[in-house]
Design goal:
By secondary structure, this protein is mainly α. The protein has helices at 2-7, 34-41, 48-60, 64-68, 107-118, 144-156, and strands at residues 79-82, 85-87, 91-93, 101-104. The chain has 6 helices and 4 strands, in the order ααααββββαα.
Length: 168
């Protein structure tokens, strides 16, 4: 917007000359085929919570911070109410687009999420995180494990170039 404003003489300062921009050619992310995803989620995982988080991301498109922020009260009938996101530095905040949204979700997935929420040991009921921290009742799980578990699972299935596949 500032570049537009300068080019259209709405502001006097050229804030852009001399800036080095990030890479023009970012590494392309690999996306699983439907067959690969089916094989991936039809095999047992060492970490069932990582499997559930990865399934949730794949089936709904939720961002990792939105998944971390989920509580039982966010689960509806065949839908998820995305009301918050969680970031390590910021804590609980509004979602990236700034607005609550409703995301359709399969009932089987919602059932698994409810079961996951029932394992929360902190007794916070509807306000407890579905993916809870083992050290702090006011924070969700440390999600770094989810991507690592995804890549480990893909390697165990014989897939190559798994480093180009991310949780996101």
């Amino acid at each position: 917007p500032l570049k537009y404003a300068y080019q259209n003489q709405l502001i006097k300062n050229d804030c852009f000359t001399g800036f080095n921009f990030l890479s023009d050619n970012p590494k392309k992310k690999q996306i699983l085929t439907l067959e690969q995803a089916e094989k991936l989620f039809n095999t047992p995982w060492l970490n069932p919570t990582a499997k559930l988080a990865n399934q949730l991301s794949m089936l709904t498109g939720l961002r990792i911070g939105e998944i971390l922020a989920l509580t039982p009260k966010d689960l509806g009938v065949n839908k998820i109410y995305v009301q918050h996101s969680f970031a390590v530095k910021d804590g609980l905040k509004c979602p990236k687009n700034g607005e609550t949204r409703i995301v359709p979700a399969p009932s089987k997935l919602l059932e698994q999420l409810r079961k996951q929420g029932q394992t929360n040991p902190y007794g916070q009921g509807e306000n407890g995180f579905l993916f809870w921290s083992t050290t702090n009742p006011n924070k969700p799980f440390d999600n770094k494990t989810w991507g690592k578990q995804l890549r480990l699972q893909l390697k165990s299935l014989g897939m190559e170039n798994v480093e180009s596949i991310s949780f996101h």
